[in-house]
Amino acid sequence: MAREVTQEAFAAAWADGALVIDVREADEYAAGHVPDARLMPLRTVPARCGELPADRPVFVICASGNRSRTAADLMTSRGLDAYSVAGGTGAWVRGGRPVAAGSHEHAA
């Protein structure tokens, strides 16, 4: 089972340059995402886990924390050090943290 991190712990990791994977769909990502988050829609995660580094933590985020838990569980089962971000992008935005908008130029 994947571990979950609080918004505060995630914000600190993000500020230190953490790898962030957004598992929402492209339209959700384009509407607003954590700056520098890489898009990897949940449906693509099983086939794309191998693209992620095994030597550093991966922080997985979605809208509310449900899809990110599913993705982080899968990543953990494949040997990755994955964490689901509690509350997702919704909590990130409500917390007044930075948000980027636009296409998936940072797509994984």
Structure in words:
This protein has 108 residues and is of the alpha/beta class. The protein has one domain (3-94): 3-Layer(aba) Sandwich (Oxidized Rhodanese, domain 1), CATH 3.40.250. The chain is 35% helix and 16% strand. It contains five helices and five strands; from the N terminus they run βαβαβαβαβα. It has a five-stranded parallel beta sheet with strand order 1-5-4-2-3. Helix 2 (26-31) links the parallel strand 2 (19-22) and strand 3. The radius of gyration is 12 Å and the shape is globular.
Question: In a nutshell, what does this entry contain?
Answer:
The chain is an alpha/beta fold. 35% of the residues lie in helices and 16% in strands. The model has no long low-confidence stretch (mean pLDDT 94).
List the helices and strands and how they pair.
Elements: E1 3-5, H1 7-15, E2 19-22, H2 26-31, E3 38-39, H3 45-48, E4 58-61, H4 66-77, E5 82-85, H5 88-94
Parallel strand pairs: 1-5, 2-3, 2-4, 4-5
Query: How does the helix and strand content classify structurally?
Result: alpha/beta
Unreliable parts: none
Number of domains: 1
Evaluate the radius of gyration: 12 Å
Largest beta sheet: strand ordering: 1-5-4-2-3
CATH architecture: 3-Layer(aba) Sandwich
Taking the alpha carbons of the first and last residues, their distance comes to 23 Å
Q: What is the H/E order?
A: EHEHEHEHEH
CATH homologous superfamily? Rhodanese-like domain
